[in-house]
Specification:
The chain is of the alpha/beta class and 88 residues long. The protein has three helices and four strands. The chain has a four-stranded mixed beta sheet with strand order 1-2-4-3, covered by helices on one side. α1 links the parallel β1 and β2. α1 runs parallel beside α3. The protein is globular and about 35 Å long. The mean pLDDT is 95.
């Protein structure tokens, strides 16, 4: 079952989305969690992106969703953040 991915950013997510879907499926098998996150949302945040210790992503347990800050980030780094949040 594919994960719902929402893009609330200005980033072109065409190439990233299939990789994020594959990552969720892989992590689901390896980590053994039953359901994928309800949603993965890409967000822009210019101020956060300029802060070297700014947030990269967060998990919301109430609705099992993941939000990832994507401004100025390489797709590999975004995928690392998703992988990290999936283990929560």
């Amino acid at each position: 079952m594919p994960c719902n991915i929402q893009n609330n950013s200005s980033m072109d997510d065409t190439d990233l989305n299939p990789l994020a879907q594959d990552l969720v499926g892989y992590m689901q098998k390896k980590a053994g969690f039953k359901k994928p996150p309800s949603a993965i949302t890409y967000e822009d945040d210019m101020a956060n992106s300029k802060n070297i210790l700014g947030k990269t992503a967060y998990y919301t347990p109430q609705d099992s969703s993941i939000t990832v800050y994507v401004t100025g980030r390489h797709p590999k780094d975004i995928l690392r953040s998703i992988a990290h949040e999936l283990i929560h």
